[in-house]
Automatic annotation (TrEMBL):
Pfam families per UniProt: Metallophos (PF00149)
Annotated segments matching region Disordered: 350-419
UniProt protein name: Metallo-dependent phosphatase-like protein
Matches recorded under CDD domains: MPP_239FB
Biased composition (Polar residues): 375-394
Cross-referenced InterPro entries: Calcineurin-like_PHP, Metallo-depent_PP-like, UPF0046_metallophosphoest
Lineage: Eukaryota, Fungi, Dikarya, Ascomycota, Pezizomycotina
Superkingdom of this protein's organism: Eukaryota
Domain Calcineurin-like phosphoesterase: 9-213
Basic and acidic residues: compositionally biased ranges: 400-419
Any GO MF annotation of the entry: hydrolase activity
Length: 419
């Protein structure tokens, strides 16, 4: 007989943009990760070389199952957008040149097909079910779509709704955040329709990236019977808490010297361990209640000028045992959860969560990113500089970014602040 609930460990990252993570940020075999998740933007310019680098990095992650979705930068996976960029290129680009840099239509998908033997699965939009090696049944809703007026991959106009058929998925993986949850740049930039879908389905875990400057995690308790819920009204603030955000780990303008020292010590301990951890199983002080709580995780890895990399997340939650119906499993008692890495011992107690829209960005969980807000292409979709081809050539170095494409393709600060 399958256990009623199975403690399951997730390793969550996003927005690596074609770069390899420091080895200290990759989970060790002793950590016993059950599922690794990459929430999109594996690349910066959607080049074959970037996908290959990302796949090699994913292969080094010690986990039996590694789930990957696309982000807006991974536009060659969005075949209609890939074709649109090629068709609108001026002057027309040589097909041989395009295929050398970006591959033929579907070549990136072929790379992921070959990577299945390494436990790497690329998820298209929709619901996916897995029986895990630990005996748990995992149901995931995945979607790469984000609201935008730009010509990147997997985007829809902000004035339009997108259909999010989440169903009863316990885990939701999207590239972008829902409105009001770890989505702040100069303003809230998440998806309103995604928020309403999440509020309706109330998964145990929703992980995403896209907004580099609002990395963090929050455990939010839902209210019942709210008419037209929003991020202001849908949550029980007394039952909700902030696990960690950039603001809890970075010195604030109004912080005392003692608080600054405490934040620095916490960050250094987490950095030494190579991850930020949180556990919400039945044996923990604050377990997740099915249909009543959702743990939100913004796992964007690309960081700030001061801290080029942000920390990956390791999250423990309980899933139903394989063969059990979800409502039945949710009513039953759990077995003990596996131990977390040592980093959990240095985390401060979770802080009660309050709406932060009235707070200045530095006090609301937003810390300016080294590439935040994102940049908006103007003029023709493609540059005339053939060396850049389908995406702006950008020189990325740790701590700063330079965009030095032609004038008609220069990027401007983007109003929605996304990456």
């Amino acid at each position: 007989m399958s256990p009623s609930k199975v403690p399951t460990r997730f390793y969550i990252i996003s927005d690596t943009h074609g770069e390899t993570l420091p080895s200290s940020y990759l989970p060790k075999a002793s950590t016993k990760v059950d599922v690794a998740i990459h929430c999109g933007d594996l690349t910066d310019e959607s080049k074959l070389s970037e996908f290959r680098t990302s796949l090699e990095m994913l292969k080094t992650i010690s986990a039996p199952l590694k789930l990957v979705i696309a982000g807006n930068h991974d536009f060659t996976l969005d075949i209609p957008m890939f074709k649109k960029k090629i068709a609108e290129a001026q002057p027309p680009l040589s097909q041989d040149l395009v295929e050398k840099e970006y591959g033929y239509y579907g070549q990136v998908q072929d790379l992921f097909t070959a990577a299945k033997q390494e436990g790497i699965l690329f998820l298209n939009e929709g619901i996916h079910s897995f029986t895990l090696a630990n005996g748990a049944q995992l149901t995931v809703y995945a979607s790469p779509y984000t609201p935008s007026t730009n010509d990147w991959g997997f985007q829809y106009h902000p004035d339009d709704d997108h259909e999010w058929n989440i169903g009863n998925a316990e885990v939701v993986v999207t590239h972008g955040p829902p409105l009001g949850i770890l989505d702040r740049v100069d303003k809230r930039v998440g998806s309103a329709s995604l928020f309403h879908a999440i509020e309706k389905s109330r998964p145990l875990l929703h992980c995403f990236g896209h907004i580099h400057s609002n990395w963090g995690a929050k455990l939010m308790a839902w209210k019942d019977d709210i008419v037209d819920p929003t991020h202001f009204t849908a949550f029980d603030n007394d039952g909700s808490s902030t696990i960690q955000t950039l603001a809890t780990l970075s010195p604030g303008k109004y912080d005392t010297a003692e608080l600054k020292e405490r934040k620095l010590a916490t960050y250094q301990a987490l950095e030494q361990n190579g991850c930020c951890t949180t556990s919400h199983c039945s044996s923990d002080p604050r377990s997740l209640r099915h249909g009543r709580d959702t743990l939100f995780v913004n796992a964007a890895m690309q960081g700030t000028l001061e801290r080029p990399w942000q920390l990956p997340w390791i999250v423990d939650i309980e899933l139903p045992g394989a063969g059990l119906e979800l409502p039945e499993a949710a009513r039953m008692l759990s077995e003990a959860a596996p131990e977390l890495p040592e980093a959990v011992s240095v985390l401060p107690e979770a802080q009660p969560d309050v709406p932060d829209d009235a707070l200045p960005p530095s006090e609301a969980g937003h810390v300016p990113s080294r590439k935040d807000p994102d940049t908006l292409q103007t003029g023709p979709i493609l540059p005339q500089n053939s060396s850049s081809l389908l995406a702006q050539t950008s020189t990325r170095k740790r701590g700063h970014t330079t965009d030095d494409g032609p004038v008609e393709r220069q990027r401007l600060k983007r109003r929605d602040g996304s990456e």
